[in-house]
């Protein structure tokens, strides 16, 4: 059902299915007669607003996925063990509703299960190696890294290591791994339940990016017969907003699609802003799809609450000081026209939103203020 | 309390005091002045007060003297002349008596400088004395036999015949052999016990043993007997000291409640102490005259208060510079109360030879290490209690030399905690070894390794081509810059400095010799130079629970300008400097430096006219603040040994850290 998560880099595999979706959404652009002449001429001149940019973007993303596949296959050739892990990971990842961090957790649990280690130490080393392979498989994905770290932390920080019998210790580790996977799976439900108190009848919600958690929240709210309206940003270049709006319209939620640049224009009528997150960093800020920061800034300056829905396995021990302070996640961006070689293109896929622009974080640990994130992380890692 | 206080009118000897612009209240003027420190006087009998026949002023008193254990002095004198001497020793005793009086009667004993060690809670006081009483009743003969000339830490030669009396005086609750003794002891008991009798009993009942309860009863009986007698407290005090004098038993005030034998007792005391430790100590307010006087009386260092102080900062100590040092260093070989290593560190602090929080803290801890190595538990004393008292004495000496930094406070708290946690069954040498290794571990783990961890973390935030701005001198920042340079990062450093300390020059010198690309400027140019900077690295003296940064004055300015230019501000601070207190402004807690440093401008020619305006102008006050506080919103990140954390997470670290602290 879900083709794209906000961390689109990882989900490139499913992108092959998305062109039809893009085709369906192409309609409104072309058919609407109310496009002002100004924009029509502008589109004609610059070719920026064209109907086929989505398809091109998808094609470009597909190209990247090919690269990554070859890269990962290199990895697979390198070590046999990593082959297993990534295979497992990819198997899990094919399940549509599973976030990649959960997939990673499942894969690591499978590593424990399949392990032939005879001592605890060996098992731990094996686990560590597997998680390292997973992490190096995609360094740009924050939730994958954070999920692996958290899993290792959660699994090994038990009394399991004190068991005399290796098998019972191992089974205890497995138990814990299963439990962690389960918690992670349930996280989305928990967050959806927690957030219901914040959605009131007649409110207008601005959503940026395509987050499964946010969708779950909206879905739950609709099931609870709340009356609300959703504004979706378009989410260039992947058209995440377009996908989200089509999903929402299936649920009979009134939805309106905005250009990314129309956020400030329509912020007046917005009551709250919802984001998903690629990663929640130690300062309490979030790393999310490009455009989040500016929307948060606009919302902050207009005193609109900004809510972030993120599962706790996305909490990462990172502390970016500014936008450039992260490992860049680059992606190709197609403008639909030929860009002169001398023109540089900003290809970063995500940005960092500092905590002072966020109001609350909805996590499966509860509704947190941004500063609590660091507390949770400290308690977990220290 | 106040009415009682009135009764202690003491003949006026001579009025010396704080000569700030505010007139001293009559109350303080009534008391004889003790601005000069005991040991100093005791040794240099040329001091004006030591000649005053203090023994005649009031009935000579002998009660627990100083917290500095300068008793040895008295001991020596006493040994020479077995009869009560009205010499310096007597004077000291007199001082001590007055001090103890103040302690019993003053309105807030727990707030005294070193609140943790004074007998602050009445319950504890009586409990201790009562149990001690029990202890001594059973052991006194044995002890007097077994310690013919070492029973107490001092003055044994004189005391042998009256050994048992001494003990009684110590316990301050006598069995009532002699009337006078009973009277005094009872009285002193009554001072503390009477008002809160019921409360105490309730509190005590659950944790006292039968013997202890009996001891309490007896003490109460004695108190009743004493109450019958006439009772101005003045008389009481002098009386109470009398037997002490007869036996020549000067004893530190805190040791009046020495350790008890029973373990349960000890744990109870420990629990109490722990409770008290949880409450952050109040800072000494130097505009609170009575308490300042009190503190002055015990002072080792003879500090003269500056005359011309800024109104807003009257509560902070400000002393004239440069006059204490020769005096102190001449005392180096004569002063036994303070261990020479501690003394040395104190002098270095005073002279400003050691600067920088880490250096000061390490120096202090190493001095303590040495002092502990040389420490010998006096017979009949418990290492835990006696050593704590000793450390307290050292600490108050260090405070006199220069106010402690927050980090030093934390380190001292750690040390006291370790002492308190010593297993009872440990032998003295083992205890000493364990304490020394604990201190060494603290230095290694919390300071040296922490710095290394900070460097590792902070270096990840330095990218090629950056311009790093730093202010003043911080050794951690220096280490970060040097390490980043070492691993081949290409960056430029802007060093911002300010008068009067010009610490940045030291940093500049070190960086330039290592080949870093540096720019040096003064803080006046900060808004200009900030445009270039991409990161600001700051050191810290302390960080408080609310994220407020307490650092060298000028830091707040840097952080605010950086914030205005949206340059991230990174504060590098070891976790042992985090403090659980909350700081809102830089007025309440600060340190005043030498005002002359502000007044004297190097290039300014000191002609007669200039110096005249400077020195004789009542309307001109110089303020040389040492620290300021930066609100947390101007700090982007704190790099500590626990990693990179936002300023909002300080309380979490403090909580976790303290827990670890206790476990350590």
From TrEMBL, chain A:
Region of interest called Disordered, as start-end residue ranges on this chain: 1-30
SUPFAM superfamilies: NagB/RpiA/CoA transferase-like
Compartment annotation: Cytoplasm, Cytosol
Top-level division of the source organism's lineage: Eukaryota
Ranges in coiled-coil conformation: none
Assembly mode: Component of the translation initiation factor 2B (eIF2B) complex which is a heterodecamer of two sets of five different subunits: alpha, beta, gamma, delta and epsilon. Subunits alpha, beta and delta comprise a regulatory subcomplex and subunits epsilon and gamma comprise a catalytic subcomplex. Within the complex, the hexameric regulatory complex resides at the center, with the two heterodimeric catalytic subcomplexes bound on opposite sides.
Protein name per UniProt: Translation initiation factor eIF2B subunit alpha
Keywords: Cytoplasm, Initiation factor, Protein biosynthesis
GO MF, any single term: guanyl-nucleotide exchange factor activity
GO CC term, one of those recorded: cytosol
PANTHER family documented for this protein: EIF-2B GDP-GTP EXCHANGE FACTOR SUBUNIT ALPHA (PTHR45860:SF3), TRANSLATION INITIATION FACTOR EIF-2B SUBUNIT ALPHA (PTHR45860)
InterPro entries linked to this entry: eIF2B_alpha/beta/delta, elF-2B_alpha_N, IF-2B-related, IF_2B-like_C, NagB/RpiA_transferase-like
Family, per entry: Belongs to the eIF-2B alpha/beta/delta subunits family.
TrEMBL record, chain B:
Domain of life from the UniProt record: Eukaryota
Polar residues: bias regions: 28-44
InterPro entries according to UniProt: IF-2B-related, IF_2B-like_C, NagB/RpiA_transferase-like
Gene3D superfamilies: Translation initiation factor eif-2b, domain 2
Region feature (Disordered): 15-74, 188-275
Biased composition (Low complexity): 45-60, 217-229
A family per Pfam: IF-2B
Biased composition, class Basic and acidic residues, residue ranges: 195-216, 230-239
Family: Belongs to the eIF-2B alpha/beta/delta subunits family.
Name of this chain's protein: Translation initiation factor eIF2B subunit delta
